[in-house]
Amino acid sequence: MEANTSLQQQLLEAGVHFGHLRKKWNPKMLPYIFAEKKGIHIIDLNKTTEALQEAAAALKSIARSGKKIMFVGTKKQAKEIVTECAKKVNMPYVTERWLGGMLTNFNTVRKSVKKMQSIDKMLSDGLAESLTKKERLTLGRDRDKMEKVLGGIAQLGRVPAALFIVDIGHEHIALAEAKRLGITTFGMVDTNCDPNKVDFAIPSNDDATKSIAIITQYITAAIAEGLAERQAAKDEEAETEVSDDEKEKRAQRLLAEAEAESGRGAGGRRAPAGGQRRRTPSGGRRPGGR
Q1: Could you tell me the CA-to-CA distances from 118 to 124, 131, 137, 148, 264 in Å, in that order?
Q2: Alpha carbon distances (Å) from 3 to 11, 13, 50, 55
Q3: Is residue 194 part of a domain?
Q4: Are 165 and 137 in the same domain?
Q5: Domain residues for 114?
Q6: Domain for residue 71, yes or no?
């Protein structure tokens, strides 16, 4: 309970509870509105805390399973925060412009990413030296444009398992594409949006930098925990495999030693016993008899 209280206090200090003007509200946000003050709706932070913890738990589970979560925040206030948080947990992100079809036409987008990577290779390997100065400049400019839009998804080999969106109203194209593909969606939802459009709605102020930062950082920390647990499980598995191999090798070694020992013992007993028992009756050829 104390943890919840301190989280609520942090959310309060970051201004997460400030909604939009009453005239801009979406009636579907009614369950998340605590009150109205000077014409502005105040979000119920109890509901925000619950929703945030639920979303964090789900994202942690996705990260633990090794799937990718894409961060989307193209608003001016969100760009820097989203980039920083996504990089921290090595997840794809979009902070410039959402290209139509980035998810629904993923193969075409991957071709553009590969083109960007091949230009990178040309410039780093010195293959571009054979081009004229003007061609090199054009190539560099094209690459910079691509990097700006596609840089955050350069390492994404397949469609992500989930999307975390800052302002679902602003990122409606991304949300529509995710819905079409059945991708799980998580979003910061202000009082002017429909919370039913996302699978995990986090009622919160999606305009203030502090509010965006606290929610995104909380989500990122949960993803980092999931990744750490996945790594720990992998390490444990590797250790178990090694110890199983060692046990098997040791068992084989002991078995080989036992076989060798029993072979030596049996050989030592059989030769003299056989020799003595056969020779005694036939002619008294005992060693002491000569």
Answers
A1: 10, 15, 16, 16, 68
A2: 12, 15, 12, 16
A3: yes
A4: no
A5: 105-151
A6: yes
Q: CA dist 107 to 18, 102, 114, 156, 157, Å? A: 40, 9, 11, 11, 10
The tokens describing 60, both together, are 């942690």
Cα 123 to Cα 115: distance, rounded to the nearest angstrom:
12
Does the global pTM surpass 0.85?
no
Where are any strands of DSSP class E within 150-224?
162-166, 184-189, 200-203
Q: Which residue has the tokens 């081009």?
A: 131
Biggest CA pair distance of the chain = 128
Backbone angles phi, psi at 155, to 5 degrees: -95, 5
Query: CA-CA-CA-CA torsion for 42, 7, 222, 205, nearest 10 degrees?
Result: 20
Assess whether pLDDT exceeds 90 at residue 278: no
* Residue 221 included in any domain: yes
pLDDT of residue 264: 63
Q: What is the pLDDT of residues 158-180, one digit of tens each?
A: 899 999 999 899 999 999 999 99
23 and 145 share one domain = no
